[in-house]
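User: My collaborator sent over this chain with a note saying "see what the structure looks like." That's all I know about it. Can you take a look?
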Amino acid sequence: MLQALFYQYFRCGADKISIGSDAVYAAEEYLRTGVKSGKSSFEQISRVYGNQAVVVSIDPCKVYVKNQNDIDVEFETIRVTNPVLNFVLKVRGGREIQRIRAYELTKAVEELGAGEILLNCIDYEGQGKGI
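Assistant: Without extra context I'll predict from the sequence alone. Here is the result:
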């Protein structure tokens, strides 16, 4: 079913497909198990159409916290006078924070077959500031 949908996109002229949250979930699973399942959408696209057809869209954003334990993530932080700066990854249109860092995500999706990475800045997403 999944491949049939992708086939239609490519048949209609698409030469690339951008994957977001699904790539994060697949990378987390890969990093947890060390096994390439071949079941994620971008692994399937890469296998059938080549890795040049797979673009993984990554949405990191800055989070300022008073101390490292203020949010439930296990990331390195950068101390800037006060407060602490932390970078987190968001999925589902920015509604959920994931525990994986952008660097680990990038390395994992590359190993799983992504040909391109689209790094977005969503720090000002939805604020209407035009940044």
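A starting point for your reply to your collaborator: The mean pLDDT is 76.
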